[in-house]
Amino acid sequence: MKTLPFIYNQPKEFLASLQPKEWADFILGEINPLFSLTATKARVIGIRNESLDSKTLVLKTNRNWKGFQAGQHVPVTIEIAGRRVTRFYSLSSAPGDKNPTITVKKQNGGLVSHFINERVQVGDILELGAAQGDFVLSKEIPNKILMIAGGSGITPIHSILQDLSKRDYKGQVKLLYFSRFREDIIFYDSFAKLEAENPWLEIKHVLTDVKAEGFDFGFLTNEMLHSFVPDLTDRLVYLCGPAPLQGPAKFMLGDVKIISELFLLPNQVNFSTSSKGPKEVVLLQSHRTILLKGEKSILDELEDNGIYAPSGCKMGICHTCVCKKVSGSVTNLMNQTVSGEGEENIQICVSRAEARLELDL
Ligand code: FES
């Protein structure tokens, strides 16, 4: 794929590099911001509060939207202070719904999740990519399913349950959903409705931080798991949430078949050790040389210097930030391994410079 010069760093070069289709898109966008030959765009046509700090955006997509499978996520690009930023969010509606929805919970320090919750309004335009992800139903849907979710990990599960409801599913699903306190429960009303309308569904809400009448309290235990699901070994498990839920859950589930999606928060990437001294990074396409401190990921340090490379999740999941390292060594902050000096593709959101680098950026 051709990499364009950064529009904000080199606007003249960017415009000069536009192809006929891209010019057509530019003009169509001036007529109606939803129109495009190439880009998948969506207008926000509704906003719902789902919990104290999460909102659902109801979207009207343009003709380039190819749909999704329940449980998938989608890259959402949004302009914040003149800068295009991309993050992945799970779709929360059923695939057959006329207007897809995404549900976004504010994350600590999450620029985009805060922006969406506080600033996005009905009428705003978002750019979407193709839906992706393997946290989906298999062709043959099992008769017995257990779903375990924590926090915003509930979003793809909400989509799957909506889908099962539309398909007139006849099996049995139990959902164990962990939230910090009552007002933190996402989709509380929607789940109550789903449960009332679908006899195959049983939901247990568990609060982990603040007790409330009528709700279970505590973290996942073997006892909780087996008393809620005595037939655990007969079930396929869908598990979605942060690492502190997933680790113990996987241990307790043992040999039970699990389909899981990890929501890794940026502060779970280990930035605690920094490299020794500043490192020179040469950006070959931009013809710039920057001095990085080696204290953060390359992506973050470039942004600190006003250079915005393509990025998405910033957690090492989406691969939007992958770029070619032509020379030099980096540490992968996910597993603390140090690379060789040679040419390879790296995820700059989870890589730290260890030596002078040449990047194809
Ligand atoms: S931004 Fe998603 S992997 Fe780097």
TrEMBL record:
Q: Which residues are in the FAD-binding FR-type domain? A: 37-138
Q: What is this protein called?
A: Ferredoxin reductase
- Where are the membrane-spanning stretches? none
**Domain 2Fe-2S ferredoxin-type, residue spans:** 279-361
Cite a single GO MF annotation.
iron-sulfur cluster binding
User: Which PANTHER family does this one have?
Assistant: NADH OXIDOREDUCTASE HCR (PTHR47354), OXIDOREDUCTASE-RELATED (PTHR47354:SF3)
The source's domain of life comes to: Bacteria
| PROSITE patterns linked | 2FE2S_FER_2, FAD_FR
